[in-house]
UniProtKB/TrEMBL annotation:
Its EC number is 2.8.2.-. Transmembrane segments: none annotated. Residues 63-218 form the Sulfotransferase domain. The lineage of its organism: Eukaryota, Metazoa, Chordata, Craniata, Vertebrata. SUPFAM superfamilies: P-loop containing nucleoside triphosphate hydrolases. This is Sulfotransferase. The keyword Phosphoprotein does not apply. InterPro entries: NST/OST (IPR037359), P-loop_NTPase (IPR027417), Sulfotransferase_dom (IPR000863). Keywords: Glycoprotein, Transferase. It is an enzyme of class 2 (transferase). It comes from Echinops telfairi (Lesser hedgehog tenrec). It holds the Pfam family Sulfotransfer_1. Belongs to the sulfotransferase 1 family. PANTHER family: HEPARAN SULFATE GLUCOSAMINE 3-O-SULFOTRANSFERASE 6, HEPARAN SULFATE SULFOTRANSFERASE.
Length: 235
């Protein structure tokens, strides 16, 4: 059968991972940029910044309104510090976290700083809900992905209508890394952890700064819990 006549399904899933979204990606303009999806396949796309990019919901909906959306979220305060740690690793001499997070010393929280703005999950989700119903989303807890990877991956498999192939027996806790790792890499026989840029130490941020950010995010977090029907336990 020529490739053109193979039945093509709409894209099965888009992964929007929000652990450490970066800004600047252009959302896919059309299906022509994606590979064809054959019967029994799921096409996945992981671009963290889509969740926070203004035009992404409209454009992805126009491409395929049946898209499933998976969003990985973690405590926005930890997320901001993680984001800062990532930038710091590439930009020595970066001002302190505190200097970037607040205007005028310990003045108002600077929501123009992307590390802070990305954590306003309720605001970003509101834009998506204008195009996609809540049932199209799976919200994965970044914290449980570390404490119970098999449980969270199990939810992902269910959401995608897949058999639960990945289970507890695929993971072990690597004490050196401080994170779960795979007992065997795909197609290999050796254990495999994520790379050095995942799970690196965070810089120390003064408790007063953390506390102020916690207070700032609390109402947004609660709104997000209401919108998703899930309590992520961040405060
Ligand atoms: N198993 C395992 N191993 C290592 N790291 C893990 C794991 N599970 C989740 N995490 C968390 O993933 C965070 C980085 O993932 P990101 O998706 O944000 O990375 S990136 O945006 O693609 O750079 C990374 O954030 P940091 O801890 O701030 O580095 C981790 O906390």
């Amino acid at each position: 059968m020529p490739a053109d006549s193979v039945p093509v399904r709409p894209f099965g899933a888009f992964i929007l991972c929000l652990d450490r979204a970066h800004t600047g990606a252009t959302p896919l303009a059309s299906e022509s940029l994606m590979p064809r999806t054959l019967e029994g396949q799921i096409t996945m796309e992981k671009t963290p910044s889509y969740f926070v990019t203004r035009e992404a919901p409209r454009r992805i909906h126009r491409m395929s309104p049946d898209t499933k959306l998976i969003v990985v979220v973690r405590d926005p305060v930890t997320r901001a510090i993680s984001d800062y740690a990532q930038t710091l690793s590439k930009t020595p001499g970066l001002p302190s976290f505190r200097a970037l997070a607040f205007r005028r010393g310990l003045g108002p929280v600077d929501t123009a700083w992307s590390a802070v703005r990305i954590g306003l999950y309720a605001q970003h989700l509101a834009r998506w809900l204008r195009y996609f119903p809540l049932s199209r989303f799976l919200f994965v807890s970044g914290e449980r992905l570390v404490s119970d990877p098999a449980g969270e991956v199990g939810r992902v498999q269910d959401f995608l209508g897949l058999k639960r192939v990945v289970t507890d027996k695929h993971f072990y806790f690597n004490a050196t890394k401080g994170f779960p790792c795979l007992k065997k890499a795909q197609g290999g026989s050796r254990p495999r952890c994520l790379g050095k840029s995942k799970g690196r130490p965070h810089p120390r941020v003064p408790e007063a700064v953390v506390q102020r950010l916690r207070d700032f995010y609390r109402p947004f977090n609660h709104r997000f819990y209401q919108m998703t029907g899930q309590d992520f336990g961040w405060d």
